[in-house]
Write a structure and sequence with these properties.
The chain is an alpha/beta fold. It has 3 domains: 110 residues, Winged helix-like DNA-binding domain superfamily/Winged helix DNA-binding domain (Arc Repressor Mutant, subunit A, Orthogonal Bundle); 114 residues, Aspartate Aminotransferase, domain 1 (Alpha-Beta Complex), CATH 3.90.1150.10; 238 residues, Type I PLP-dependent aspartate aminotransferase-like (Major domain) (Aspartate Aminotransferase, domain 2, 3-Layer(aba) Sandwich). Helix content is 46%, strand content 12%. The strands form 4 sheets. Strands 4-10-9-8-7-5-6 form a 7-stranded mixed sheet, sandwiched between helices. The protein has a 3-stranded antiparallel sheet with strand order 11-14-13. A two-stranded antiparallel sheet has the order 1-2. Strand 7, helix 14 and strand 8 form a beta-alpha-beta unit. The structure holds pyridoxal-5'-phosphate (PLP).
Amino acid sequence: MQAAAVTLSLQKIRAAGIAEGSAKAMKQPANMEQNHPLFRQVYDYMVNRIVREEWKVHDKLPSIRMLAEELQVHRLTVFKAYRELASSGRVYVKDKSGYYVAPAGMLREEPTAEAAAGVPAYSLTNPMSDIQRMPVQYQFSQALIDPGLLPNLFLSDYVKKVFDLYPKVMGTYSSVQGDPELRSVLSRHYQEHYKLQLSPAELLITSGAQQAINLIAGLVLGPMDYVLVERPTYSVALDIFRRAGARLLPVTITPEGYDLEAVEELMRTCRPRMFYINPTHHNPTGHTVPARQRKLLVELAERYRCLLVEDDPFRDIYFGGVPPAPFFAYDTEGWVIYISSFSKYVAPGLRICAVACRHPFMERLITAKSMADNGSPLLNQKIFLHYYTSPRLQQHLGKLRIALQVHKEIMEEELAGSGWEWTAPEGGLNLWIKLPESVSAAALLQRSMEQSISFVPGELCDPLGEMTSWLRLSYSFASENVLREGMRKLMQLAREL
Ligand SMILES: Cc1ncc(COP(=O)(O)O)c(C=O)c1O
């Protein structure tokens, strides 16, 4: 089936007079994938039509499904070609609408071999975002909460209230560092709930944790710098560090935390600039680094002058006990930066995140933020502030924890007896699954996308790109019925592989 599709597609492409090399490849299908992968041929085919102006600037391009049918290749192949076209600036994406031909000014030069060699981890792709942009019926790839479980109605109440209280809110910038009222509420909250000693001047409001990671990476990392990362980890952070040209040093995370001797050895020999950690209900594994390791790791960071960047968006999403205090609570010398996003359990659309760090790094961060966007929207900060200080927040969190635990248990129930393995998480949004050796997550994804089921293949979360029989399934987005149905379909597909 697959071989036939490959041959047919090559005939089509050749008939279009494009891929000269493909004719040779047709006689040697085994080498073809190696030397000139199919998606690359589709890419070339598209570039050629764009260059010949059969598709003009700002023309809408055929959908993935239509092009896959036309060329008789798999949709994922076309998807991959589109991804490359987008990253080379040939096309651009409009959300929920499709792909369009980009104007010449968007074209990025291909990196030369020399440049690529000088920046070993060079990359301009974000495969996670590509998977998540595909509209699917069974959504298990987004570590996001079902919008039906979020406090949308209450937030819209506050929208009206905020306009009454601050009639000029749209007519003004926020301060670059963030609304002082919000920072002062958050610093009190962090003291009471997370044991963090903080002043409002030590907080910066960013547009999501992703912006925070980006700003920090921009300040701290240069080409060839080492950065320690958990293995596995949040794949977008890996893409950001790669784009900065940094070299990734993986540190395995287990239910017991890290191997601190190995971490110390890496810090001693490689002198990494920073260690990016997500130590509480970690994405993707759900593990939480135990309290005893937190203090020790902060001491190591201080000794080896390695910044700890603690990304903590899942702290309040727990099913059992309250997790241990953040690493930031143990920091005495300013070697920890604490990122606390509210995208997960309040409102991803508001893009509110607080970054805590000490002087003098805060000044540098504020400058970077001013260059990025001159401050996050004041309206969003005020809406968030009024919700955050109302008793509704804690009520919402109480109900949300129960709902998410039910989701998690449904997923686990459906997977029982599958032969798939995972460690039951105590919080967070995902199951990190080990498939039987015979099943490849990439092959399963290819099949599952055809059935409108998405998940994150483990290799995207692996700094070494090797965890091919792992996958991340998010139980937080799909409704209970969709979750059951989708899991059954997914396991059936795995059995057929
Ligand atoms: C560990 C981690 N950090 C950061 C983010 C991005 O958060 P935000 O939406 O606040 O940018 C995510 C989103 O999934 C995440 O899992």
